[in-house]
Amino acid sequence: MAIKERRTKILLSLLLLSDVVKSYPIPLDDKVQKTFDYSLNQKTKGSLSGLVKEELITRIDDKYELTDKGFAELCLGFPFFRFLREKWDGKWRILSYEIPEKKRELRDKLRREVVGWGLGPWHRSFWLTPHPIIENLRQLVSQKEEEKYIQAFESDHVFGDRTVLIEKVWAKTQLDKKYREMFKKWHDVLASSREKLEKFQEVVNEYVILLRQDPGLPKELLGESWIGFEALNIFKEIKSILLS
């Protein structure tokens, strides 16, 4: 599995195995555990209890369901999902930081923490995203050393070719290529003679790797026919076939 954190595995399994647009309760049975590489041991039960207390998931009998709060947390690591439920407000968020070279460790730490927020490099030390991450950023750096090196802005796009901007900042063409490569891998997996569950594990693994890289731009920027939306529909079809 491309994810190490047990907490993230649980949240992602509840999202991908229910419905991305509208969650419903999922039993964490053997198929789910094997697919997302966790077991219902004491650590996992402790994680589930913690997630329920934080109101990120709810328990309904022997099933669990992702809450809106849990969905929001998951979107920080997997921004692709956000605008499948929410409408983009048309605003851009700009993050600027000038952390001295002698503070490189601090700079690298900040980059690791915000890497999944749909941010793309616009210019040196300027990062751009359509996602509403300002409050998350404030909570992340408040009263910490890096706070004094950071500036954040919200803005409308007033002038310029957005297609050029998207290619420059997020390398849309390269991402499209990666999705097409994943489709080929999915085809090979489905054509193999392995058991259904083994096939689904591989499909999920490949998908999660790419979802980590997708900045989750809204359809207003990508268009209705963006290959990432097609990938989700194909994944749903594969899921219904292999988990039947």
Task: Describe the 3D structure.
This protein has 244 residues and is of the alpha+beta class. It has three domains: 6-77, Orthogonal Bundle (Arc Repressor Mutant, subunit A); 92-156; 171-242. It is 52% helix and 12% strand. It has helices at 6-16, 30-35, 42-53, 68-77, 82-85, 104-114, 134-141, 162-170, 172-191, 196-211, 219-222, 227-242; strands spanning 26-27, 57-60, 63-66, 92-97, 120-123, 126-129, 150-155. The strands form two sheets. It has a four-stranded antiparallel β-sheet with strand order 5-6-4-7. Strands 1-3-2 form a three-stranded antiparallel β-sheet. The chain starts with 5 loop residues before the first helix and ends with a helix. The model has no long low-confidence stretch (mean pLDDT 92).
